[in-house]
Amino acid sequence: MSVLIVGLVIFLGLHSVRIFAEEWRKARIAQMGEKGWKSAYSVLSIIGLALIVWGYGIARREPVTLWSPPAWAPHVAGVLTLVSFILFPAAYVRGNHFKALLKHPMVISVVLWAFAHLLANGTLNAVLLFGAFLVWALADFAAARRRDRVESIVYPNGMLSRDVIPVVVGVVAWIAFAFFFHEWLIGVKPMA
């Protein structure tokens, strides 16, 4: 479990710098330059993510069961992850309704993804992993909305034609992952 925890601390800690230490972040960017900061950020993120994956795999070998998820949980998780897969690309498509309404659809995507997996998993390692991501995403969303207010950011109204891209990309990615890649990569068939 310690490898998982170290990975979470590195990955989520790094992704929390903008939440808790914006001035420090700006000073590092000024010192290292934009490319230097992004390079260091990327390398450390990859290390943290690799440790999370490795640590979660180790922890799954001897799971500590905290509860047994109800029979309906995987079905609800499936719907929540579908919405999550649609919201994730919505963050990158300008002028869509998801971004206009939610402001930060990627972070909401992480909230839904983490919550869905908490519903469908009752092991200690799952609670640690998905609970950490859920708490981080909620804190990040609150911080992002606070920055929006301070900087008077206004999101443009969405256009239906711009909604199609994240919906199609999200649904196709969800189908591919839920029915094929999840079992291959994670070892669990969520749509069984």
From TrEMBL:
Domain of life the protein comes from: Bacteria
Keyword list, A-Z: Membrane, Transmembrane, Transmembrane helix
Ranges of residues in domain NnrU: 3-190
Membrane topology, record value: Multi-pass membrane protein
Subcellular localization, as worded in the UniProt entry: Membrane
GO cellular component: membrane
Pfam families: NnrU (PF07298)
InterPro entries, sorted: NnrU_dom
Coiled-coil residue windows: none
Transmembrane portions of the chain: 40-59, 71-92, 112-143, 164-186
Protein name: Uncharacterized membrane protein
Organism field: Paraburkholderia susongensis
